[in-house]
Amino acid sequence: MRTAIALAVLVLAGTGGDLAIAHAMKRLGEVPSFKPAAIWYFLGRAFRERWMWMGIAQLTLAFCSLLALLSWEAVSFVVPAMALSYVTGALGGKYFLKEQLTRVRWLGIGLISVGVALVCLG
Amino acid sequence: MTSPQAPILKTSFLLVLLVVLNSAGNFFFGIGMKRIGALPSWSMAALHSAFIAIFSSPWIWLGIVSMLLFMVALMLVLSWADFTYVMPATASMYAVVALLGHFVLGEPVTRLRWIGVALICLGVLLVGHTPPSTTRKD
User: Fold this and answer.
1) How far apart, in whole angstroms, are the C-alpha atoms of residue A63 and residue A57?
2) For chain B, what is the domain count?
3) Is residue B79 part of a domain?
4) I need a labelling partner for A2 at 20 to 30 A (CA). Which of A45, B5, B80, B110 fits?
5) Counting Cβ atoms within 10 Å, is residue A24 exposed (0-12), middle (13-18) or buried (19+)?
């Protein structure tokens, strides 16, 4: 039971955090180059985004849940089980970020989900 | 704005970096938490002891550094690529983590788990064949 609760917190808070950060990055626009100065400037702008901090708060919650899970479950179970967030992330990407998910992309995400189920059952 | 070819090259480079950093981070966290052990209870004293033990562990700090670098790389790639492209593409780390868990930590990985890992890799390949960005306006 405690594993199910910790996994649910990990997946939902992790997905929410990733989506919020993705939204913040889209608002900033494409980083112009990989030069250190450009990356620092980009990071500076990113940390002034409200969505960035909402994402960090949720990822912190997910991180605490991850540490707790890893203290009693095998890493080869916990990490693959985290891939449940690919399904919630796909839905969030489509409806929140308005990304276009082609049939091939859905198929790929579906295979990943089945793979995750098998990994957890195994 | 960059050329259409440039995002594919730099997206691929950052995706590989994401997989390596995330695998390393989870692996270090796994080692660190196994050494600390499960929480004996959820009392404040037990949580305090666990907090001290966690943040005194060099493995946990290695994991934190890996994850911070992962975060920066993720932010950069998400500035131009789809979230639904980047996140599934990073799932190939499961193969890496399963291998590390099995061969380094000695954790059991059954045949069913290996099949699952193979399906995840196939799914990642399919997602990798879709355009990295469906929201670019260039």
Assistant:
1) 10
2) 1
3) yes
4) B110
5) buried
Instruction: Print the domain residue range for B33.
Output: 5-128
CB contact under 8 A, A89 and B83: yes
Q: By the CB < 8 Å criterion, does A37 face chain B?
A: no
Scanning the structure block, which residue is given the tokens 């788990």? B113
At A52, list the tokens. 């960035």
* pLDDT score of A45: 93
**Cβ–Cβ under 8 Å, residues B122 and A85:** no
Question: What pLDDT shows up at residue B1?
Answer: 41
Put simply, whether A29 touches B (Cβ < 8 Å) is yes
ipTM score above 0.85:
no
Nearest to A75 among B30, B88, B118 (CB): B30
The answer to whether B42 touches A8, Cβ cutoff 8 Å, is no
CB proximity under 8 Å: B 20-39 to A: 26-27, 29-30, 33-34, 36-39
Taking contacts as CB-CB distances below 8 angstroms, the residues of chain B near A93 are: 82-84, 87
Please state the φ and ψ torsions of residue B113, each to the nearest 5 degrees: -65, -40
- The dihedral region occupied by B37, where left means phi > 0, alpha psi between -120 and 50, and beta the remainder, is left
CA distance B100 to B84: 26
Would residue B83 count as lying in a domain?
A: yes
**Distance between CA atoms of residues A24 and A82, nearest Å:** 23
The pTM for the full model equals: 0.76
Residue B87 predicted with pLDDT over 50: yes
What are the tens digits of pLDDT across the range A17-73?
A: 999 999 999 999 888 888 889 999 999 999 999 999 999 999 999 989 988 888 888
